[in-house]
């Protein structure tokens, strides 16, 4: 059951089974401006409720340090935990670097399997669904 679906030129996001799904569009370069827009939109989609977040980062080409810093701090608002899906070595390296250097405020892991990424988030999902 999808609810609160949103899509723009940067990403699409929706809430399903107690998890907020976030998928970056191909060719996305994350600047501070893009990061702010993404967080603002996510907060509009989810309202005041905190969710575990599944983030498909395969569309990201690169990001700035200021954008990564912003996402590690302000980007964690109302996020219980985050799993990132990457099938490419380059994206995995970006997220590994992000996790090591920016120290996100919530549990954050990278996966190459969607199943394992969602399994990780299960422990953070409300037992009573929306």
Give me some keywords for this one.
single chain; 130 residues; alpha/beta; Transcription Regulator spoIIAA; six-stranded mixed β-sheet; two-stranded parallel ribbon; 4 helices; 8 strands
Molecular structure report:
By secondary structure, the chain is of the alpha/beta class. It has a single domain, classed as STAS domain (Transcription Regulator spoIIAA). It has four helices and eight strands. Strand 2 and strand 3 form a beta hairpin.
Any chance you could write out the topology, listing elements then pairs?
Layout: E1 2-7, E2 11-16, E3 19-24, E4 28-30, H1 32-46, E5 51-56, E6 60-63, H2 65-73, E7 79-85, H3 89-102, E8 108-111, H4 114-122
Parallel strand pairs: 3-5, 4-6, 5-7, 7-8
Antiparallel strand pairs: 1-2, 2-3
Please provide a brief summary of the model.
With 130 residues, the protein is of the alpha/beta class. Helices cover 36% and strands 32% of the residues.
């Amino acid at each position: 059951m999808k609810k609160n679906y949103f899509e723009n030129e940067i990403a699409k996001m929706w809430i399903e089974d107690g998890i907020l799904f976030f998928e970056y569009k191909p060719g996305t370069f994350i600047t501070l401006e893009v990061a702010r827009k993404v967080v603002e939109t996510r907060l509009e989609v989810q309202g005041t409720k905190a969710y575990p977040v599944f983030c498909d980062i395969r569309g990201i080409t690169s990001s700035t340090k200021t954008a990564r810093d912003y996402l590690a701090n302000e980007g964690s608002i109302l996020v219980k935990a985050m799993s990132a899906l990457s099938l490419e070595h380059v994206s995995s390296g970006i997220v590994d670097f992000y996790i090591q250097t920016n120290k996100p405020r919530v549990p954050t892991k990278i996966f190459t399997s969607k199943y394992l990424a969602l399994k990780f988030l299960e422990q953070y999902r409300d037992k009573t669904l929306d």
